[in-house]
Specification:
Strand content: 25-35%
Distance between the termini: 82 Å
Subcellular location: Nucleus; Cytoplasm
CATH architecture of the largest domain: Sandwich
Strand order of the largest sheet: 5-2-1-8
Keywords: Activator, Chromatin regulator, Coiled coil, Cytoplasm, DNA damage, DNA repair, Nucleus, Transcription, Transcription regulation
Helix content: 10-25%
Organism: Lentinula lateritia
Structural class: alpha+beta
Family: Belongs to the YAF9 family.
Number of helices: 3
Protein name: Protein AF-9 homolog
Number of domains: 2
CATH superfamily of the largest domain: YEATS domain
Number of strands: 8
Shape: extended
Order of helices and strands: EEEEEEEHEHH
CATH class of the largest domain: Mainly Beta
Length: about 260
């Protein structure tokens, strides 16, 4: 890079929206003939651009992220052969078969022009449909899982580059991300939000996608949860103060 390109643009931040997560489905009887006997699912874990391509059958992936990503590493459970899988070109994803859920470590390696360090994000591999009750985690019966079809678990995130090098900034501005739609165009919604699972009935038809309204809804849910926590804290604080006053009164009576 020329010296001018090595100068950081101070006070500027630029972001790129991504989604990461996985889809999973039950193996067919024929598929199970060619995998270890305990394996029940085929799953794909991926890191993609947030927007979905028109008519696409996958979550996200409208944009090629290799203009700023050099490599994506997926660290699987240690029981898999070669658990660290490096993907050096798009699509940044891998597919495997298995039977259990576990945490996948996803490392993002940026192109040299960025001057950015590797960052790591974490995803809990999801194989089973979300709990129908919405408040407990349990593996559903086989017939329920079959009716649910493909299970999706995805998280929206924005990678923010602060004070980028001029050359890297040029690369980013020359590759603007495809905007995510305001509302869902696929006709399908999925439980993106941790702690807010939906019944499998809402998972039918179409391909799930992220929308700006979905992000707004999530922010409102987080704000509501924050207010509930504050209210509970105040309630507990008031109860503690009352108990302390009662203790002081009893001690005064005992000493008097």
């Amino acid at each position: 890079m020329a010296n001018a390109d090595r100068v950081r643009v101070r006070g500027l931040s630029i972001a790129r929206p991504i989604v990461y997560g996985n889809s999973a489905r039950l193996l067919t009887s024929k598929e199970r003939e060619n995998v270890p006997p305990e394996h029940t699912h085929r799953w794909t874990v991926a890191l993609r651009s947030a927007a979905s391509a028109p008519g696409s059958d996958i979550v996200g992936g409208a944009d090629d992220l290799s203009y700023f990503l050099k490599r994506v590493s997926f660290k699987l459970h240690e029981t898999y052969p070669n658990p660290v899988r490096n993907i050096d070109k798009p699509p940044f994803e891998l597919s495997e078969t298995g039977w259990g859920e576990f945490e996948v470590h996803i490392k993002l390696h940026f192109i040299p022009e960025s001057g950015e360090k590797v960052i790591t994000i974490y995803h809990h591999l999801k194989l089973h449909p979300w709990s129908l009750s919405g408040d407990t985690e349990s593996i559903p019966p086989l017939e329920v899982a079959q009716k649910a079809g493909t299970v999706h678990s995805w998280q929206y995130e924005e990678i923010v580059f602060n004070d980028p090098y001029q050359n890297f900034l040029n690369i980013l501005t020359n590759n603007p991300p495809t905007p995510i739609p305001r509302t869902n165009t696929s006709g399908r919604t999925i439980p993106f939000h941790i702690g807010n699972p939906a019944s499998f009935e809402s998972l039918k038809g179409g391909v799930p996608e992220f929308t700006s309204l979905l992000e707004k809804d999530e922010a409102e849910r987080l704000d509501k949860a924050k207010k509930l926590i504050i209210a509970e804290q105040e309630k507990t604080r008031a109860l503690l103060i009352a108990k302390e006053k009662e203790l002081a009164r009893l001690q005064k009576m005992l000493n008097g």
